[in-house]
Amino acid sequence: MHQLDLCLWMHGHGAGNLYGTDDLASNQGLTKAGNCLEVGADHVILDLQGHAIIGTGTGIGILIQSSAHDTVVQGTDLTETGQAIINTWGVGLEDDANNVVIELFRQIGGNNFNPHGNAGDAVLLQNATGVTVANFNASFNGGTGVDIQGGSDNRVFNCDSISNAGNGVIVASSNINTISNCSINGNTGYGVWLNTANQNQIFTSSLNGNGKIGVLVGCHKEGKCTGNKGSDLNHISSSGTNGNGGAGITVEEGSSNNQITNMSASGNGGTADLIDNNPSCDGDLWFNNAFGGASQSCIH
Predict the structure, then answer these.
(1) Are 107 and 115 in contact (CB under 8 A)?
(2) 211 phi-psi bin (left φ>0, alpha ψ -120 to 50, beta other)
(3) CA distance 258 to 108
(4) Rg of the Cα trace of the chain?
(5) Angle at CA 99, nearest 5°, toward 96 and 101?
(6) Which pLDDT does position 221 carry in this prediction?
(7) What is the enclosing helix (H) or strand (E) of 177?
(8) Please, what is the Cα angle at 173 between 176 and 57, to 5 degrees?
(9) 203 occurs within a structural domain
């Protein structure tokens, strides 16, 4: 058993279990890259035991390196009452490794009483596959709540991504991910943006009151997209997209064979609550949705 009592780098193979014994701050020492905790070993369990990791606006609070596959990073465990906080870093938590579990964080960012989170993203997955991110709050950050770049087969559930200056969730060049049971509300940008992202699922979530579109499928004219701009074969179901600054849901031209079912969409800005910019919806299935207005008669 290892104790964790300052910002440090954990490396090697099979480092075992590590436990936080106190709050950590950037003035206790950083890694050479300017981060607080760097996990380089595989099969590590890092339990912060409800403690806080506080930075000064730069670096990464916790970096899980690509070598640290099959690792668990948790803010607490079931025997503990408090959950950990990661705040005031450039990025709260970045994972570059596969088959990682990240869970049980009270805050990766700020809250209503302290609306000053991390300068950039709360959670960033870089080319990671098979990752579970669950039971966490990623709000009041300067970037995006959950940013998935590359990789596949990741799960995000039981989360809050609220009042971020960027977007609630981005899934970019990444396929077969699932977002469920999340409150993705009041973000300055999009609620969820599926950008060149296929076969993803969004269900049983709220995507309300975001500054732009609640759910954007494909590449919007203001987006900086590369390669194939379409997002295909996604399923969005059993969620609410209400009161957003743009449409509730928009499927952009070039994105096809998406399914949008059992959704509610009302009180959104723009020209309609539900928008499909493909001629005659081009294979997109809109079924059993409740909405105030739609851009085409193929939307039901």
Answers:
(1) no
(2) alpha
(3) 32
(4) 19
(5) 90
(6) 66
(7) none
(8) 110
(9) yes
- Whether residue 9 contacts residue 30, with contact meaning beta carbons closer than 8 Å, is answered with no
Report the relative pairing of strands 84-87 and 259-261 from DSSP bridges.
Answer: unpaired
Residue 149 lies in a domain: no
Closest C-alpha to 124, from 73, 155, 169, 164: 169
Range of the domain at 222: 169-300
User: What is the residue whose two structure tokens read 């300067």?
Assistant: 142
Both 20 and 74 in one domain: the answer is yes
| pTM across the whole model | 0.92
Do 91 and 193 share a domain, yes or no?
Answer: no
Beta strands in 44-100 (DSSP E): 45-47, 52-54, 60-64, 72-74, 84-87, 91-95
Alpha helices in the chain (DSSP H): none
Indicate the SS3 state at residue 5.
Answer: coil
Q: Token match 């971020």: residue?
A: 164
> For residue range 138-183, what is the model confidence (pLDDT) as tens digits?
999 999 999 999 999 999 999 999 999 999 999 999 999 999 999 9
Please check whether residues 136 and 183 belong to one and the same domain: no
> pLDDT tens for residues 163-172?
999 999 999 9
Q: What is the pLDDT of residue 32?
A: 79
Helix, strand, or coil (residue 1): coil
pLDDT at 7 over 70: no
